[in-house]
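DM from R.C. (forwarded with permission)

"hey, sorry to bug you on a friday — could you get me a structure for this? deadline for the figure draft is monday and I only need the backbone to look sensible"
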Amino acid sequence: MVARPNAALAQIHTQIMWSRLIAVVEEQAQTMLRTAFSTSVREAGDLSAGVFDRHGRMLAQAVTGTPGHVNSMANAVRHFLDVYPLAAMKPGDHYITNDPWLTSGHLHDITVVTPSFYRGQPVGLFANTIHRCSRRACRFQSCRSPATAA
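My reply, with the result:
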């Protein structure tokens, strides 16, 4: 006879796992905030962070960041999985794009997707999207400031 799992314990386990997922992606976002060179990321939190399953479905996203980047980040994950199958990915691989046709439609958004492995097998992906605005890039409309002097 197979023992039936306790429903209350299953709910507690689910909540613990959910809290762990949120904590991981929130730490991912906070790390980007602490280490960013981009003022728009560091001071305005113009970023997103998330974890995805093997099929590119988002499992959790960080609370920190901007909602507008979340969908573009998800599009980038699906794009990379279409071009680079998960089975071909290796530990240490990172996939980076700022192609506006593949992600957010904005040249200044950079998305990084990194596979995660368990016992040598790919189990999911982590992704980040940031908005980068440099002095050189400020000639574009999205970064223009009405200021005429520094």
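R.C.: lifesaver. Helices lie at 7-35, 39-42, 67-83.
me: no worries. The first strand starts at residue 47 and ends at 52.
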